[in-house]
Amino acid sequence: MKEKVGGLAFVAAFCGFFAVMGAMGLLDLIREVGLARESVRWPAAEGEVVDVTISRALRSTRVLYRFAVDGRVHEGRRIAFVDRARGRTRSELAAEYPEGRRLTVRYDPDDPETAVLEPGVTTGMILEDGLVTGGFLLFGLGAGIAGGMAILRG
Q1: pTM for the full model?
Q2: Angle between helix 2-39 and helix 123-153 axes, rounded to 10 deg
Q3: Cα 103 from chain centroid?
Q4: Could you tell me the CA-to-CA distances from 68 to 23, 35, 71, 75 in Å, in that order?
Q5: Going by C-beta distance under 8 Å and a sequence separation of 6 or more, which residues neighbour residue 3?
Q6: How far apart, in whole angstroms, are the C-alpha atoms of residue 28 and residue 9?
């Protein structure tokens, strides 16, 4: 009996991890998609790229930009919601957003710190991220149920 309980605990912990990661990912995706959809209607402000950092270790490009809303200066780092920057190399992003470039920044009127350079969302973004996070959730739930039943049948 102790072996069954120990086996169930392991299966629950292992599969629970995947299920929780998948659920968290889906919740974040839903939030990001909501913001992306709203962002096309947000007000625009003129901004400027003030720093571009290419990290080979993190395999990313960070773009820092500044813009003003009602006389107050804000900074942003988000290029796009739901990682629309995928498919572009680090060098392409750095070339597209060089230091000193003047650009249009869309910002949330209720929270100007939430800003984006490329507003909107595409179906491909939702499908790609949704499949990954949904896969984690389904794997965790399915493997947990199947593993638990196998142990109990023993």
Answers
A1: 0.69
A2: 170
A3: 23
A4: 36, 20, 6, 9
A5: none
A6: 28
| pLDDT tens digit sequence for 105-132 | 999 999 999 999 999 876 666 666 666 7
Task: Please give the radius of gyration of the chain, using alpha carbons only, rounded to the nearest integer.
Answer: 21
Question: Tokens 């804000």 map to which residue?
Answer: 74
Q: Side chain identity at 76, as an amino acid letter?
A: G
Which of these, 3, 8, 5, 6, lies nearest to 147 by C-alpha position?
Answer: 8
What size, in residues, is the chain?
Answer: 154
Distance between the two ends of the chain, CA-based, in angstroms? 10
The DSSP code for 80 is B
Query: For 118, which DSSP code?
Result: B
pLDDT tens digits, 50-77: 999 887 766 678 899 999 999 999 999 9
How many C-beta atoms surround the C-beta of residue 31 within 10 A? 12
